[in-house]
Amino acid sequence: MAGARTRILGFGRHYIAPQPRIPTTIPPQTWTHQIRLSSVLRPELSSGSAYNAPGTHTLMQTEPFVHEPAIDLHASRSLTPVTLQSLLCLSPTSLMSNAHYLQRELPVRVAKIVKAMQGLPLIVASNPHISRVKNLYCDFLTEMIRMERVRDDKGMKKFCDLLQDLVGQGTGVIPLLAQGFLECYKYIPQKSINAFINDVITARIGIRVLAEHHIALHAQFHDHGGHWTLPPSIKNGHPGHDLPSSSIMSRSTPETNNIHGIIHSSLRPYSLLMSCASFVTDLCESYLGASAPVTLEMEDPTWGFTYIPVHLEYIMIEILKNSMRANVEAYKKNIMKGEQHQAGILGASMKTDGAGQRGIPAVQVTVALDVDTKDVTIRVRDQGGGIPYGDLGRVFDYSYTTVPHVPVADSQPNMFSMSSEKDVQRGLGGQLAGLGYGLGTARVYAEYFGGSLQLVSLVGWGTDTFIRLKNIYPRLDQEI
């Protein structure tokens, strides 16, 4: 699982930075502040001894902050995690108690993120982009603290609006962090950058699952006139045990009957992947002037599994953008070299013939289902020339990119910097290429429920991306 990875930030460890790189007037013996974000990410793994490498020191953020007392108070509190099963069992009668739970829990989780950001090296924490992220979370923490306890429908609507603000305003968090760390790369090791951003993304996923699930349930309950039943494939099963394939992998139940909040009990990968491919194709057409056809192969397109659609959607859009861009750019490069066409007919070769651009190789997507575990494996294959073997170890770094760097504030809309309408629930809008965090973020999403994302490169030909996603129904005891 994602939480099982060793991290410099989290799981009871200190943040470690080489002392000579930190320009500060604070005496080394006063650098004592500990960064602990682990309880936000995986509470069950939060225990562990602090670690200091020889000759290094943990750092203290001394910048005064107006919300410091509230941050300290909430960050010192223990989390109260919930299981996926408890989320699936929410009903109109328990939605009010869930709002009370979120009013207690979300400030604690947000405060722990803020404390972690304050514990960064002073020169890094002072970066305007990173400070802006910290201020966004502090503002939300203030609003949560000020809000009265939800007692009626009016209060519930106000609370859902506040959660929606958290969802909407957080769309630029990861781009800002990536920009800030890119500007501070001289003062903090890349390994520490990766660990910190991985932890923040993982923490954000947990927060957003709780918030978005509550928002979605509130809307669904109202759509159903206050009456609600569990999806058939969940209601007929038993927590922690596999359901019969006819239940979990439903072929006939209408889609709307299988959605509970943001959890889909019979999500069909085929349908979602077709939608993602269409979306990415339109982006490529608009911003690259060309697109590669996408072929999708699956033995039975009607099969489904229990998962959160927006997570799979984000992962696949990110991977498909990379693969389609690789195919198109490799094709253009070959044209310019005269390997396929004369340079003078470049424009004509970019016209659509109904099945993609002539000569541009297809992005091949293959979906396989494990009939025993109901887990799903997806392979995305491109012919973009592959990733140099020397770069394979860096492709998941939050600085690795093949796109020329353009600062966030100065960037113009393009297929990799625009915020798609699908990013509302994902919360990862903004520049998704050029800062080098797309693949890293997709991997965190894949690993959140125990899956994986791996790359295999054949230099001179292309890259295969393997995404394994675990059916979350047998894992309903996992804590969020």
The gist of it:
Strand 7 (452-458) and strand 8 form a beta hairpin. The longest helix is centred in the middle third of the chain and has 34 residues, at 190-223.
Structure characterization notes:
The chain has 480 residues and is of the alpha+beta class. The protein has a five-stranded mixed β-sheet with strand order 3-5-6-8-7. It has helices at 38-41, 68-75, 84-88, 95-118, 122-125, 128-146, 153-169, 173-183, 190-223, 232-235, 245-248, 269-287, 309-336, 346-349, 423-426, 438-448, and strands spanning 259-260, 263-267, 294-298, 305-307, 363-369, 376-381, 452-458, 462-469. The chain is built from 16 helices and eight strands. It is globular and about 70 Å long. The two termini are 13 Å apart. The model is unreliable at 1-36, 38-66, 227-254, 340-357 and 406-433 (pLDDT under 50).
Query: Structural class of the secondary structure composition?
Result: alpha+beta
- Please count the beta strands (DSSP E, at least 2 residues each): 8
- The number of helices is 16
Main sheet strand line-up = 3-5-6-8-7
Beta-strand content bin: 5-15%
